[in-house]
Known about the structure:
- This protein is mainly alpha-helical.
- It contains 16 helices and no strands.
- α1 runs antiparallel to α2, α5 packs parallel to α7 (121-156) and α7 packs antiparallel against α8.
- The chain starts with a helix and ends with a helix.
Amino acid sequence: xxxxxxxxxxxxxxAAFMFFIFASIQLYPLRNRSNMMxxxxxxxxxxxxxxxxxxxxxxxxxxxDTYVTGITMSIDMLYIPLMALFFFEVxxxxxxxxxxxxxxxxxxxLFIIAYILYPSPYIFKAAMLYSFIFxxxxxxxxxxxxxxRDNYIKDNFSDIEGFSVSWVRKVITALYVCLIFWTxxxxxxxxxxxxxYYAVSILVWTYIYRLSQKHSVIxxxxxxxxxxxxxxxTDEEIPNFLFGKKLQESMExxxxxxxxxxxxxDVAGAIGTNxxxxxxxxxxxxxxxxxxxxxxxxxxEACALLTSDNRKNLSEIAELSGFNSLSTFNRAFVxxxxxxxxxxxxxxxxxxxx
Length: 354
């Protein structure tokens, strides 16, 4: 059983190495698309290097050499600042600069140099502790910054397909669990756990690889800031009854919601106000954001189309309702109606039969 576990660990380890090599090759022509893709490309190369260096442990003399093991594991800790830089760039395009790369990586590099010169277990433990604390802080920052950015996007855009960074929170949570798992593995050898760790890493990075290619970078004036500013506050009173009437008319009569690329600025200009007032009215008075507000009209339109004409397929219904994609339509419909469009149609058909 132990021999099988060891062989399985080596096999999955090799699979991880080949995956990162393949991903690097695939990302090479895409690396200049954006700074985010460039960071992902170099991240894949670095991860391939980490997997490759560990193959040296197939030599038994190196496996039992604590000095060599300590150095290689210290190098592994560079994984954390590298991931932090990638996620920060996804959240805030333009945030990563040469000096910030140096600043983020320097502490980990200093720990590696210190251990090479003075191979003390205390230095290694300090490096492990630093990496764990640093990773925990990065997790908190990414959650806070990505949530604020998503709120900003929903307050200003009616189509967030490819713009939302909610996937970053899912991915960094999975990687943080991997960090904890890796820390445990560092102290206790277990081949099955080792194989499981590499398998999960492949799955998580496959997810990152796919979503990064779909992700669109929004050019914002505050993009290079990690934390987007909170909505501006104004003490000026807004005549809600007049304001609300103009907004309602623009949606119902002018049917502005049918524009899949509709933005807060478009609507603000159409009703003769500014983005700050409109955003405040939606958030404070209607207790919603621009994205949800517009989608409510789109779902209402979709329900009317589904009821009146069952010859159109769901893709056509989505397009005629103002949605930019079928997947966005499905998610919005489930959230508003409580069931999928397909199930909604089945219920309508049953009523007609009865």
